[in-house]
Specification:
- By secondary structure, the protein is an alpha/beta fold.
- It has 13 helices and 21 strands.
- Strands 4, 5, 6, 7, 8, 9, 10, 11, 12, 13, 14 and 15 form a twelve-stranded mixed beta sheet that branches.
- Helix 1 crosses helix 7, helix 10 runs parallel beside helix 11 and helix 12 runs antiparallel to helix 13.
């Protein structure tokens, strides 16, 4: 009962009481939060205590950066609760193997990232952090009041005590394991009848196809895409099938970063964290986020450079929020394509969004696609489309790619069409992916 009351208090605070009348007011509030956070938390983390020795917290925006590699290398002294990396990995790997995600170390939940970059990470969450997370997520994601009944169906690669925290009172939560059979998912969903459906877009697309065939009979009030980049192609298809706007949650090992408002615009959760922008192209609004999360204490995330590319929205959102609005999540920095410049050895970076447009502008009949860059001079393309349209579509793709390369004054790579979409086996779907390192 006490836990439910704490979740309710966090929900009310997040939904109704944290309000900012201007961007300046928000940034001043964040500045005070960060200075107080650093003063209280840095002494508890041996890593940060040494790393920031001699630096002033008044200039916290200039503190040295950290990233995933550094966090994992110094994990034992990075966290503030004395958990060792080997012990945490053992718990997390055992949970992955047995599909029993309940074990903890003391009251600390241990989670394992999906490791799409080949470097798996660990996240920690104390009981108090889980309660605050649950109240905040409910405030930002529930379509109606917390006092009404909600039945959440949540599809992910791994469950966690973190997610089970929301299963309180009138909030019913059911975890669906992405590794389970689709027939079992359909049977359980038809019985459960969720009011909120949360899943990666690749799974949402599979469920949408089952709805169209009549096998799946659910009518959720809200559909939320998580874990993977929501491609415009998928977004349109899902919106048509579910007859509603598709919402998004941007969350990763490093934090609860963004959620959509009632207009479907992704806003950074700047009431939980500060996100500084390392611009890749300021004119296009494309940047790498540097996170400082003043809501996490067991595993402090301070001046943490993510490996994602975000695009900020140029026009203000009609909702009136002063939180930064995003046009889209591009994907990982690892998925930037590189083409060789004409008459030079210079490599030109090409954002994933440009590659998506090469495909999407070729036809509005594409059901599924994937583009891999396997060499500087070769890309692979998978297309799911009717055979009678494929020939013309390939010509359009080649024209679009040629146009893009001419725009960047770079050599046009060869296109090799593949006939099978590679198996994901519970991994995140990356529609645009570079298969080699630069």
């Amino acid at each position: 009962m006490i836990e439910q009351l704490k979740i309710l208090m966090t929900y009310l605070k997040s939904k109704y009481f944290i309000r900012f009348h201007s961007r300046e007011v928000l940034e001043n509030w964040q500045d005070k939060k960060m200075k107080n956070f650093l003063k209280n938390i840095v002494p508890l983390s041996p890593f940060y205590k040494k790393y920031y020795e001699g630096f002033s917290y008044d200039n916290w925006k200039e503190l040295p950066l950290v990233d995933k590699n550094r966090m994992m290398e110094y994990f034992d002294t990075f966290n503030t609760v004395g958990i060792k990396k080997d012990e945490a990995f053992q718990i997390a790997f055992q949970a992955e193997k047995t599909r029993d995600f309940s074990p903890q170390i003391h009251d600390i939940t241990i989670g394992l990232s999906s490791g799409t970059s080949g470097n798996r990470g660990i996240f920690l969450a104390s009981k108090n952090e889980r309660i605050k997370w649950a109240g905040t997520v409910l405030a930002k994601c529930l379509p109606y009041s917390i006092l009404k009944e909600h039945k959440i169906a949540f599809f992910l690669r791994a469950n966690s005590n973190l997610y089970d925290t929301v299963d309180k009172g009138k909030i019913k939560f059911h975890f669906f394991d992405l590794l389970d059979l689709m027939d079992d998912h359909i049977k359980n969903l038809n019985t459960y009848k969720p009011s909120i459906l949360v899943a990666p877009p690749s799974m949402l697309s599979m469920l949408a196809k089952k709805i169209k065939t009549g096998m799946l009979k659910i009518d959720p009030q809200k559909v939320i895409s998580v874990a993977e980049v929501l491609d415009p192609l998928d977004e349109k298809y899902l919106s048509d099938v579910f007859n509603q706007k598709i919402h998004q949650v941007y969350q990763c090992t490093e934090g609860f970063l963004a959620t959509t408002c009632e207009y479907g615009t992704l806003h950074l959760n700047e009431d939980l964290l500060v996100i500084q922008k390392e611009y890749l192209d300021k004119n296009l609004g494309k940047f790498i986020p540097i996170i400082s999360d003043f809501s996490r204490t067991s595993q402090p995330i301070i001046r943490y450079r993510l490996n994602d590319i975000l695009t900020e929205k140029k026009m203000p959102c009609p909702c009136g929020s002063h939180f930064t609005a995003l046009e889209q999540i591009e994907g990982r920095c690892d998925d930037l394509f590189y083409f060789r410049k004409k008459e030079s050895d210079t490599l030109i970076p090409v954002f994933p969004d440009f590659i998506r447009r090469v495909i999407s502008l070729s036809s509005d009949e594409i059901k599924q696609y994937k583009v891999n860059q396997v060499r500087l001079d070769l890309i692979e393309v998978f297309l799911e489309v009717s055979d009678d349209r494929k020939k013309n579509m390939k010509k359009e793709i080649e024209k679009n790619l040629e146009r893009l390369c001419n725009q960047f004054n770079c050599l046009i790579p060869k296109i090799q069409y593949i006939h099978k979409l590679e198996e994901q086996n519970g991994k995140k779907l990356r529609r645009v992916e570079r298969k080699f390192e630069i």
